């Protein structure tokens, strides 16, 4: 081991003195590794809007009935309140990039999101 620390001889036989290098403190902790986040795989399912339980109730009732008037009577709401709920539901679907401007569009969204089963239609 001491042979490794001895100065190396030069070509003419004399020893060359090499000053020791100062390396500074030696750390036993490895340097930090940068981990780049792996993007989550694109979900095959589109994003769902955050509908309230009452909005879901109004939507499902409207899907099962022929008119908004029937929905209002069934849920003990005014026709204006039913319209307000449906407007908000449409706005929430539009905000997540899934517009549903018609009743058929909302039925399709409810099917896609698992809120209603095709057998219930």
Give the secondary structure arrangement, pairings included.
Elements: H1 2-5, H2 53-64, H3 68-75, H4 79-95, H5 103-112
Helix pairs in contact: 2-4, 3-4
Task: Tag the structure with descriptive keywords.
121 residues; 5 helices; single chain; mainly alpha; Tscrpt_reg_LuxR_C
Question: How would you explain this protein's 3D organization?
Answer:
InterPro entries: Sig_transdc_resp-reg_C-effctor, Tscrpt_reg_LuxR_C, WH-like_DNA-bd_sf. This is Helix-turn-helix transcriptional regulator. It comes from Rhodococcus navarretei. It holds the Pfam family GerE. This protein has about 120 residues and is an all-alpha fold. Helices cover about 40% and strands about 0% of the residues. The protein has 5 helices and no strands. Helix 2 (about 55-65) packs across helix 4 and helix 3 crosses helix 4. The radius of gyration is 36 Å and the shape is rod-shaped. The mean pLDDT is about 80.
Number of helices: 5
What amount of the residues lies in strands?
A: under 5%
What does the average pLDDT come to? Answer: 81
Low-confidence region ranges: none
Distance between the termini: 86 Å
How many beta-strand segments?
Answer: 0
Q: Describe the sheet with the most strands.
A: none
How much helicity do the residues have? 40-55%
Q: State the secondary-structure class.
A: mainly alpha
- C-alpha geometry: rod-shaped
The ordered H/E elements are HHHHH
- Specify Rg, calculated over alpha carbons: 36 Å
